[in-house]
Every structure is written in C-alpha cells, then in structure tokens.
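Researcher: We're teaching a course module on how sequence relates to structure. For the next exercise, students receive a sequence and then see the predicted structure as tokens, so they can try to spot secondary structure elements on their own. Here is the exercise chain.
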Amino acid sequence: MQTNLHLYHNVLARLGQLLPRERITRRRNMALLVVGLYLSRSVHLSLVVRKWPSASKEPSLVNRLRRFLINRRLEVRRWYEPVVLELLRSAAGSPIRLVIDATKVGQHHRLLTIGLAYKRRTLPLVWSVHRGSRGHTSSVRTGSNVVSGSDNPSLFVSRLTSQSDVWLVKRLKRR
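Model: And here is the predicted structure for the students to work with:
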C-alpha cells in the first residue's frame, strides 16, 4: 500500500506539471487510473481499483472510475499529448521503432493503434476506432524517417487493413 501511495503522489505531481490548468479532481482520478493500470497490469476496472491506495470498498471505487472514464469533459487527446511528446523526447537519442496494429473490436469495428516499442511493450502514441472489420495482411518492416529528428527509425506494420490506415502513416511521416 505504501508503494502505491508513493507512486500515486509521484504521478499526481507529474500530472500537475503537465496539466496545471486541469481540475485537481480530474488529475487525482487520472493519477489513480495510471497507478491502477500500471500495478494491476490489467484494464478490468475491478482489478485496477484494487491497486489504488484507498480503504474504500471496491464497488464504490469502480463506480468512481467508471464515472471518470465517461466524463465528456475529459479531453483524452489534450491530456495525452504531453505524455506522447515526453515519450518521443526520451526516445530521441536512439532508434525509434513504431508499431502499427489494427485490432478487431466487437463485430463491426477495429482499433488502429500506433505505438512506440519500448522494452518488449508498446506505448500507445495515437489510436482511433474505425467502422468495419476486414482481414489482415502479413507484417511489413520498413526503415524510413517516420519521426523527425531520428536517424534510424523502423516502422513495423502489423495487420494493416485499409487505405485510412495508410493515410495515417503518411500523415505521421510528414510531421
């Protein structure tokens, strides 16, 4: 519990630096979410809240997290942009490997994710949900300057499924 509390305070302080104008209640909830996701290694809300430094009952914490996640005033892209910039800055001195993945979500949608490969994990940089559920192609590996400022980035494309995916890759290359 003490480690959880220490991690929570560190994350909350960092969120305060990255998003100083955001409401403190949202920063607290985001810090709790980050700590729970990290320590539980799960996205199931009940498992996430079990790692929170709180003595409250689990159903109450799950409801709190659910309300936070459905809050329309929480602008995900604005919140996540400083995190993405920091991830890219920290990786700037070394080769960057981007992972592009299209995953089927439900029967009629797929999730497209572009992430930074880091220590056997993929840290998401951008994502979007698209209507449709197509097949997938084999992985493609190309060496190109996808992220400006990198000398030797590699791009791994897994299950690239449509023209909109290709458009996103081209747009990323231009930046």
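Model: If you want an answer key for the exercise: Residues 43 and 112 are 18 Å apart (CA to CA). Residues 135-175 have pLDDT under 50 and may be disordered.
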